[in-house]
Write a structure and sequence with these properties.
Layout (H helix, E strand, L loop, with lengths): L21 H48 L3 H7 L4 H7 L8 H9 L3 E5 L6 E4 L3 H12 L10 E6 L2 E8 L4 E9 L5 E7 L1 H51 L14 H70 L6 H33 L7 E4 H11 L1 H7 L2 E3 L7 E4 L1 H17 L6 E8 L3 E9 L20 H6 L6 H11 L4 E6 L2 E9 L2
Parallel strand pairs: 8-10
Antiparallel strand pairs: 1-2, 1-6, 3-4, 4-5, 5-6, 7-9, 10-11, 11-13, 12-13
Helix pairs in contact: 1-6, 6-7, 7-8, 8-13, 9-11, 11-13
């Protein structure tokens, strides 16, 4: 493959996400919505308030037109026969007009005028009634050109509503003019400058109030968001501690809403996780122990097979060799033949002893050979063991010291304790040297009895002390082979005493070694 064809995969770097607190996000969202609302209200006022105002004024003008149409102009003419000029002198203030119409006109900022077709008689209310009369006369005969600059908003059979600009007043108006059924003409109008001025003032007011509201709302939002987000922040810290396996952390805040339910679920989850992880740890420890035990058993099995093979190899080889010598009549000397036979018998006894010890040890370690607890005199048992081993003691020329005379009763398996004493004394005789002295002691305690066997000789190396109780372990292999040992005796002692839940051990001295064990007095 060419270098050009090789494609090297380079993982993309993960971009760091920007982090903002929930409190900050909520505050920004609320302030943004509030600012947008204020700006939206200002924009709506600026663009739609005037149109809305005009649409409402159109309705009011129509209502005013209906009210004026109800006036009985003939009665007004009879009551007031003055000419239009005389009426102008008196102000055309509409004294004969209903109070309700005057009140509505003042409230809605209306100016109106009513004239006949000849413009000889008229009535009006508001300012510039003469200008209105002339303007209406111009509309009637299409002499007023201002309406050409305006916009017709609504038309009916006898009514026209329009928005115009009065160049003499310099203002925009909404006007309603037409002819009543009684033949009189009317013109009603209201200025637009008031609504425009109101819109500007209201926008300034909204903006100023909006700033104040935003400041106050910001403070309130910070307070309330802190109250809202505090439980959530606590849950965040709780989840972080749970991820660090700190399951003693608990949710303690009170929000009064679904966050409390979430916090309770976190607490239950924390407890459940702690219990589950504890169970997993226990199972893992047990599994690890089982694996270690299996490995240990495999190693012990391998070591056992190696040791048994090693222990049996030498006697089998000797038996085979001397048996072949006897078969081939290597020596006709009766003494030699007898020596060959003694060697074969001796090695057979060693093999038999090894097999018996292994069977005993296997029964003890498997728990099939249960201890039979009974009360007996340990002093009598020790003297019995020394008596049985008297021949060996004499052969070793050992000086055995046991000064205990009075009975000392203990609770244990008498047969197995005898086996322990036999192993201890036998071990002491096989490693005896120097002054060739063996001393047995019984130390009475409140609930226990400590039995010890001391023999003079070389101390056991410290590094060998922990391994003495292992099967087939030998400190001096040559010497062990010399007296026919196989390294199982102390293993049997260990299995017996552990089966009776007793303590045992070994201690070095300058001139020898002491083995000891305990038994129950009660």
């Amino acid at each position: 493959m060419n270098l050009e064809e090789k494609k090297v995969f380079i993982p993309k770097k993960k971009k760091n996400k920007k982090f903002h607190t929930l409190r900050h996000q909520i505050s920004v969202i609320f302030m943004t919505v509030l600012l947008f609302s204020i700006l939206a209200i200002t924009a709506v006022n600026g663009f739609f308030l005037e149109k809305y105002y005009i649409s409402k004024k159109v309705e009011v003008l129509m209502e005013a037109e209906r009210s004026l149409s109800k006036l009985d102009m003939e009665v007004l003419v009879e009551r007031n026969r003055d000419t239009l000029e005389d009426n102008e002198k008196h102000g055309l203030d509409g004294d004969n007009v209903g109070e309700e119409i005057i009140r509505d006109s003042a409230r809605n900022n209306f100016s109106w005028v009513i004239i006949d077709e000849a413009n000889s008689r008229g009535y009006g209310w508001g300012e510039s009634k003469e200008m209105l009369r002339l303007r209406l006369f111009g509309y009637i005969y299409d002499l007023n050109l201002d309406k050409m600059d305006g916009q017709i908003l609504k038309t009916k059979d006898n009514c026209t509503i329009q928005q115009v600009h009065d160049r003499f007043a310099g203002m925009d108006y909404v006007e309603c003019w037409g002819q009543f059924e009684n033949g009189y003409y009317y013109l009603i109008r209201t200025p637009l400058e008031s609504i425009r001025e109101s819109a500007v003032i209201s926008n300034k007011f909204y903006f100023a109030v909006g700033i104040i509201i935003m400041v106050l709302s910001g403070m309130l939002i910070m307070v309330f968001t802190n109250k809202i987000t505090r439980p959530i922040c606590e849950l965040t810290k709780l989840s972080q501690r749970m991820s660090d396996l700190e399951f003693d952390a608990r949710y303690q805040s009170t929000a009064g809403n679904e966050i409390d339910v979430l916090g309770d679920n976190f607490n239950r989850m924390s407890t459940q996780l702690e219990r589950t992880i504890s169970e997993l740890k226990s199972a893992n420890i047990k599994l690890q122990k089982d694996i270690e035990d299996k490995v240990k058993i495999d190693e012990m099995r391998k070591e056992f097979l190696d040791n048994v093979s090693h222990e049996l190899k030498t006697p089998i080889a000797l038996i085979q060799g001397y048996a072949e010598g006897l078969k081939e009549n290597i020596s006709d000397d009766p003494e030699s033949r007898e020596f060959y036979c003694d060697v074969i018998i001796d090695e057979s006894l060693k093999m038999n002893k090894l097999v018996k010890n292994l069977l005993v040890l296997n029964q003890l370690e498997s728990g099939r050979d249960e201890a039979i607890m009974e009360r007996f005199d340990i002093v009598s048992l020790i003297r019995g063991v020394l008596q049985k081993m008297d021949i060996i003691i004499q052969q070793k020329e050992a000086n055995v010291i046991f000064e205990e005379e009075l009975p000392v009763y203990v609770w244990a398996d008498e047969f197995k304790v005898e086996e322990v004493m036999t192993n201890y004394v036998s071990n002491a005789l096989n490693h005896l040297s120097g002054e060739k002295q063996i001393e047995l002691k019984i130390q009475k305690m409140e609930e226990k009895v400590k039995v010890s066997v001391f023999n003079t000789g070389s101390p056991i190396p410290e590094e060998d002390l922990p391994n003495l109780w292992n099967k087939f372990y030998k400190v001096d292999k040559a010497r062990t082979r010399e007296y026919g040992g196989n390294g199982i005796g102390l293993s049997i002692v260990k299995a017996i005493l552990e089966g009776m839940d007793q303590k045992f051990g070994v201690q070095n001295y300058e001139n020898g070694v002491e083995f000891w064990f305990t038994l129950d007095r009660k």
